[in-house]
Amino acid sequence: MTPSEQPAIGTRLLGEVKANRLSQDMVEEAEEWVKIVLFRAGSGHYAFFGHNIREILSGNEIHWVPGLPEFLPGLINVRGDIESVIDIQCLLGEPRGATGGPGLIAMAVGGTFRSGIMVDAIEDVLDIPVNSIQPPLITLGAGVRDLVAGQIQLGKRLIPLLDIGKLQERVTL
Amino acid sequence: MTRSEQRLQLLLFRLGQTRFGVLACQIETLRGHDGTGSARWFHALLGFPESPSYRAPTEALVSRGELSSTWIILDATEELLDIPLEAIKPFPELVEPFSLRRGLWGILLDNEQLVFIVDLQQMLKLDDISAMNAGEIANLN
Description:
- The complex is a heterodimer.
- By secondary structure, chain A is α+β, with helices and mostly antiparallel strands.
- In chain A, about 25% of the residues lie in helices and about 40% in strands.
- Chain B is of the alpha+beta class.
- Helices cover about 15% and strands about 45% of the residues of chain B.
- Chain B has helices spanning about 40-45, 95-100, 120-135, and strands at about 5-15, 20-25, 25-30, 40, 55-65, 70-75, 75-85, 90, 105-110, 115-120.
- The termini of chain B are far apart.
- The interface of A and B includes residues 65, 69, 77, 86 and 115 of A.
């Protein structure tokens, strides 16, 4: 190839840039990502899969119903729909009244499950690679261990990722 | 009559801050409570942890078939509502097993407030079964 037949350097570098981007896109496509909602309940930090959280409600009055177990504090009226509310702190064994917060309710859905879940605060919504979800440590407390799908490392913190299906099993009579 | 045309007459009453409704056809008559008699308290049947203060205790005679009736003391009867069956919402799936154990079978939204619909006959039956399990004598009629 004579010098006049070689592609201009700009053209060659552009080709390399495009090739690099293509291979990067392929890597990203191969890596599955998932959205998570990070929240605080009591003094603990936990997460749900984002696809399980439909909306976050604030200021809803919880109506007490006779005969419910402690983890079901009552019902809320969501635009005319009556929804149950789960006290997740109670199930996780978090000490009550340790921190408090604005008192939010995360509307959770998944399969046949549908309920509000009391949380103290929403801390973040993140996209993480699925393969970054680690199996739960056996040292997790019994209350938490029964409810987790895995754990995620955020900085120095290990955050239990809660499984709506396991939560449903736990609270269904 | 189709399901959509079916209507219910509900007697609404309160207990503390909570509103309840009962099918009017379950109540034979109402009378004031004079502090005597063997009527059963609604809060006890419902399993309230403590006795709330009754503002206007009223005795309702609940039919339990052709042979017997039982007086129940309700509080603060409010009004008689005529509503379509469709206005009643079931309890959410997680809550329903627990509410049915107390005779609560539906919810009415009345002016954004929740009214729990109670089956007084079922409530009496459940209470009798509970009493029998506790070794007490009960009348299941």
